[in-house]
Design goal:
- This protein has 335 residues and is mostly helical.
- The protein has one domain.
- Helix 3 packs across helix 4, helix 5 runs parallel beside helix 12 and helix 7 packs antiparallel against helix 8.
- 38% of the residues are buried.
């Protein structure tokens, strides 16, 4: 019972990390799910939801709860960090991502080859290309009609794919479609209306968020089946593509933060202060980069040791059971 409760809260914390990833421009929630070792579990649970509903739902529930808590609870502190100390804030998450890359590479069974290098380069290029496309135009969603409704659902679909596909950022997808700033403003207004007990304003904002939520849900389900197919049929190629997308996301985080968000007066994250890189920011950035790298790197090592010890104990118990069954069979034959 204690193990179940402990696992529930551990998955909730990992879900909170996914929720935080939704806020950081360029950071993929799929990358975070891989770093926290729940990516495969999410895909298996979603794709088996119709067969094993109870177990799959109980696996996903704490992750979803944690994602909501992480997104809503830490949205303002992270927005503050992105506004006032963006280089330090972003570099911390870059360090966390870099720390997980060695583990991602080690888990690929096939040896690194020229083909693998090409796939990685394509993955990097895809993310960088999407980054350059982001923020090229803004779409007005002030009037909620059928066209706006479906466009918001499309935005939710692309943003939802980031929950499963590593390296693709949900915020970056919304920037490409031109609705990132508007959605952030709507979410901020909804939070203010809820705190101020303004029910009319809150429900008006919810009407805009419903199609986004539907798009996210549909994408989450569909892309889970797509990723499961590619991981099964083209495991090595898919993993190397994910590594490339993840490396590309490092560029995307810096590019979107400094080029697209801070100078953008329409962004809700933007502040009027002029941002200048100072020596203490560089020192702190290097420090948080190292901290982020070490945190993820050793967390991966610890997780791998636990998995190997569990695997070893399982194998030994299977051997013991096999020996016992063999002894029982031999005793029966003697009798």
């Amino acid at each position: 019972m204690k193990n179940k409760v402990g696992n529930f809260f551990i998955r909730m914390i990992k879900g909170a990390a996914i929720g935080i990833a939704m806020i950081i421009p360029g950071l993929s929630a799929g990358t975070v799910s891989i770093l926290t070792k729940i990516h495969q579990g999410i895909i298996d649970s979603v794709t088996n939801l119709h067969k094993q509903f109870k177990s799959s739902f109980l696996y996903l529930l704490p992750i979803l709860l944690g994602a909501v808590i992480g997104f809503l609870g830490l949205a303002k502190p992270i927005k503050y960090g992105l506004s006032n100390i963006p280089v330090i804030t972003v570099t911390l998450f870059v360090g966390l991502v870099i720390g997980g890359i060695p583990s991602m590479i080690s888990e690929v069974k096939d040896k690194f080859s020229r083909k693998s290098l090409i796939i990685c380069i394509i993955g990097v290029a895809v993310v960088i290309g999407i980054s350059f496309l982001s923020g090229m135009f803004e779409v007005s969603i002030t009037d909620l009609n059928i066209g706006t409704w479906f466009y918001l659902m499309l935005g939710g679909f692309f943003a939802g794919s980031a929950l499963v596909v590593s390296g693709i950022s949900g915020s970056m997808s919304l920037m490409v479609l031109g609705i990132y700033s508007s959605l952030i403003a709507i979410i901020s207004d909804a939070e203010s209306a809820l705190v101020g007990h303004q029910s009319n304003g809150f429900w008006n904002d919810v009407l805009y968020l419903i199609p986004v939520a539907i798009g996210v849900l549909l994408s989450f389900i569909i892309m889970s089946f797509v990723m499961k197919f590619f991981l099964k049929k083209f495991n090595a190629e898919t993993n190397y593509a994910v590594i490339g997308l993840t490396i590309g996301s490092i560029f995307a985080m810096y590019y979107l933060t400094f080029v697209k968000i801070i100078p953008d007066p329409t962004s809700s994250i933007h502040t009027d202060i002029s941002y200048h890189l100072q020596w203490w920011m560089i020192i702190l950035s290097i420090l948080v980069l190292i901290i982020g790298f070490i945190a993820t790197f050793f967390m991966e090592r610890l997780s791998s040791k636990k998995e190997s010890s569990v695997s070893t104990s399982t194998q030994s118990s299977n051997v013991e059971n096999s020996i016992k069954n063999q002894d029982i069979a031999e005793n029966k034959e003697e009798n």
